[in-house]
């Protein structure tokens, strides 16, 4: 390129720079609060947030240009959840995205004005978060994860896997407000499958091994692990104990099976975090949560770990293998 041409090109670019800068300066910076009931170091939580950010990016929201994220990671500790809920509300972001139920319930106690989008929350009507699925009516809406009918599906699958099991355990966290509805569904399904239940709830990590000891004394033939942030946080211990006690166990999410669990059936929560970006986009453009219906899950996944099945001496029926979305060898 000749020097004269280069100077002309440089001059044209320089003239354009102020225009581009003015366009960026004129674009309003919006703030999105993200309150996650997980440890910041948890790769599962990071994968979910990554899907949210990807969805927002696809809709034109770029961090540092027109949006800024404010994160809080209180983990599973109720006092920390309360403190961080207050902190994020005091920042007054344009919208708050929260997950899961325990975190969203705390936010509900702190504010009834800031727009809130929840993700991975069961039965928000029963929990008092919205007036109805079609017409939320307040400052909250979002994406529900489990219908109670899914709980009976866990029992169906586990019984197909272990047809000789007549006593099955159900392990849950007492801190999860949704456990009663799910457990009631399992209890209603059990008699039709010829199953008796042994139910144990825990509140502290120190109680987990005692619970598995009790299941062993109850002589259960298989185990259902109900979802909660407590269970997700302590998944390594739970999966290891299921292996030690040789309990064929079904879990609510894929990552349990990736970590060595036997099988999982449940909602693809990463998909819900990608979908919530659409609602966040609409709220940032002026929509009200009261006018956005609560969305249910659209993607479910059955994942089976064949290596774990072999270690437990369990033969996975071909019918289950054929239905599986993923088989881990």
What keywords describe this structure?
about 325 residues; alpha/beta; Rossmann fold; seven-stranded mixed β-sheet; five-stranded parallel β-sheet; 12 strands; about 20% strand; disordered N terminus
Detailed description of the structure:
By secondary structure, this protein is α/β, with parallel strands linked by helices. Helix content is 44%, strand content 19%. It folds into two domains: 10-146 and 269-298, Response regulator (Rossmann fold); 149-267 and 301-328, 3-Layer(aba) Sandwich (Rossmann fold). It has 13 helices and twelve strands. A seven-stranded mixed sheet has the order 7-6-8-9-10-11-12, sandwiched between helices. Strand 6 (167-173), helix 6 (179-189) and strand 7 (196-202) form a beta-alpha-beta unit. The model is unreliable at 1-25 (pLDDT under 50).
Topology:
Blueprint: H1 3-26, E1 30-36, H2 43-58, E2 67-72, H3 78-90, E3 95-99, H4 101-110, E4 116-121, E5 140-144, H5 149-161, E6 167-173, H6 179-189, E7 196-202, H7 208-217, E8 222-225, H8 229-233, H9 235-244, E9 249-251, H10 254-258, E10 263-267, H11 269-284, E11 300-305, H12 306-312, H13 318-323, E12 326-328
Parallel strand pairs: 1-2, 1-3, 3-4, 4-5, 6-7, 6-8, 8-9, 9-10, 11-12
Antiparallel strand pairs: 10-11
Helix pairs in contact: 2-11, 3-4, 5-6
Helix content: 40-55%
Q: What do the pLDDT scores average to?
A: 90
Give the C-level CATH assignment of the largest domain: Alpha Beta
Number of helices: 13
